[in-house]
Amino acid sequence: MEWVDFQLELFGDAEGICKPLVKAWWEGSGFARRCPSCGGWIRFTTLRMEPLTDEQASGYLKLPDHWATLARFG
């Protein structure tokens, strides 16, 4: 996988979901969610995707549970 278009605008809650996630993305901390394939935690940033432990994931903003049903992958 080379890219993910999260399509955050489709989550419908601009103030509660979209804006905080976009801010975290551009500030560099990124956000986390479980991988739809393996179930492990992933942190997404502008530079990379990286695996996280449960403990590490607790420190990041989270994509909604159903994020992968709206995202586009390439």
Please explain how this structure is put together:
The protein has three helices and six strands. It is an alpha+beta fold. The protein has one domain (about 5-74). The strands form two sheets. Strands 4-3-2-5 form a four-stranded mixed sheet. The protein has a two-stranded antiparallel ribbon with strand order 1-6. A hairpin with a 4-residue loop joins strand 3 (about 40-45) and strand 4.
Overall geometric form: globular
**Termini, distance in Å?**
6 Å
Mean pLDDT: 95
Question: N-to-C SSE series?
Answer: EHEEEHEHE
Q: Roughly what fraction of the amino acids lie in strands?
A: 15-25%
Structural class: alpha+beta
Count of domain modules: 1
Q: Specify the helix fraction band.
A: 25-40%
Helix count from the secondary structure assignment: 3
Radius of gyration in whole Å, from Cα? 11 Å
- Total strand segments: 6
- Largest sheet descriptor: 4 strands, mixed
What is the structure about, briefly put?
It contains three helices and six strands.
Explain the layout of strands and helices.
Layout: E1 4-5, H1 14-27, E2 31-34, E3 41-44, E4 49-52, H2 54-57, E5 61-62, H3 67-70, E6 72-73
Parallel strand pairs: 2-5
Antiparallel strand pairs: 1-6, 2-3, 3-4
List keywords for this structure.
four-stranded mixed beta sheet, 3 helices, globular, 74 residues, 6 strands, alpha+beta
